[in-house]
Design a protein that fits this description.
Length: 343
């Protein structure tokens, strides 16, 4: 028997499965930094969705595939930080491999760190959890009142736009997409440009469009990140629609399609950062204004530009994360489906 223990959360509906590698019992990940460990997990010449090999990836597949997981599962391996400036590091993963950023996962990890006592927090007030991720150091400010967590704010690495109105041909017609980097690379466009709406009924068409756009942009220079291939290439495609604005700023609903057709149930944390960079460049998000960002399931994040830097805009995204369970997964070596499967 092999045993893997997890603590599960959801952030605005999107799952996040926490596996603490620093507590032992699972394979270590070679590397001096979180970025190096991520590159090790991906493997030589690999990308975020390349086939995986090795003991660590056996754990990822075990937890993301059926019967223990599902095609929409997401999670992270908690690893040591780059230095003492962070509380811990994390390697984000999904059904196809690994990612360099994950806003909803960062929010969940902030709540996990407080609820497990890894980071001390007051009954009333805020506490910042500092986390090293493959794209850099991010923060999760956990908000507390009356001894319980009431919300969490994700502060991302700087976000910047890299290309605007890039023409892309899809089977639903031509589209013009904007590209922004926010820890990972996102392409975004109005869903109506392809005759789509951001609804549950339209999900098959939205996924199809997202996969086609991601593939079409594979070699576009706007997807390249100056820090190298680990942060380069389109990770997610955000299809959005405009909703009536609020007194505090714009209001949009989106579906983000990432990896090989995976749907973010939340409004997408790092994808929201990418949208904020684009809106700020367009002059649609001024000082003190917020983006109310809604998901296809009706959950919301509130995003804002907190500061400007030479590398781009520093964004903050606020939402809520809740624990859904603690699990001890086991594997019987006589089980023909021990490695799991995906439909």
């Amino acid at each position: 028997m092999t045993v893997v223990r997890t603590v599960d959360y959801h952030t605005a509906g999107e799952p996040f499965r926490v596996v603490d590698l620093t507590s032992g019992g699972t394979p270590p990940v070679p590397g001096d930094t979180v970025a190096e460990r991520c590159a090790t997990a991906i493997g030589p010449g690999g990308s975020g969705t390349a086939p995986r090999r090795g003991a660590l990836d056996d754990v990822r597949r075990l937890l993301v595939q059926e019967p223990r997981g599902h095609a929409g599962m997401y999670g992270g391996f908690v690893v040591p930080p780059d230095d003492d400036g962070a509380h811990f590091g994390v390697l984000f993963w999904h059904k196809d491999g690994y990612s360099t950023a994950c806003g909803h996962g960062t929010m969940a990890l902030g709540v996990w760190a407080v609820e497990t006592g890894r980071v001390a927090a007051p009954d009333d007030g805020d506490v910042q959890v500092r986390i090293d991720v493959p794209s850099g150091r991010v923060g999760a400010t956990v908000h507390r009142a009356g001894g319980r967590t009431t919300g969490v704010t994700f502060r991302n690495v700087p976000a910047r736009t890299s290309a605007r109105k890039v023409p892309v041909a899809t089977t639903l017609g031509m589209a013009e997409v904007d590209i922004a980097h926010a820890g990972a690379c996102y392409a975004s466009l109005p869903a109506r440009d392809l005759g789509l709406e951001v609804t549950r009924a339209a999900l098959p068409g939205l996924v199809r469009a997202g996969k086609e756009i991601r593939s079409a942009l594979a070699t576009h220079p706007g997807t390249w990140h100056p820090d190298g291939p680990l942060l380069s290439g389109v990770y997610g495609v955000t299809l959005y629609e405009e909703l009536p604005g609020t007194p505090f700023g714009p209001h949009q609903r989106n579906v983000t399609v990432f990896a090989d057709g995976q749907i973010d149930r939340s409004p997408c944390g790092s994808g929201t950062s990418a949208r904020l960079a684009l809106l700020a460049e367009d002059g649609r998000l001024g000082p003190g204004e917020d983006l109310l960002h809604e998901s296809v399931v009706g959950t919301v994040f509130t995003g804002r530009v907190a500061a400007a830097s030479e590398a781009g805009v520093v964004t903050e995204v606020t939402g809520a994360a809740y624990r859904t369970g603690e699990h001890t997964f086991s594997v019987d070596r006589h089980d023909a489906l021990a490695a799991g499967f995906l439909l």
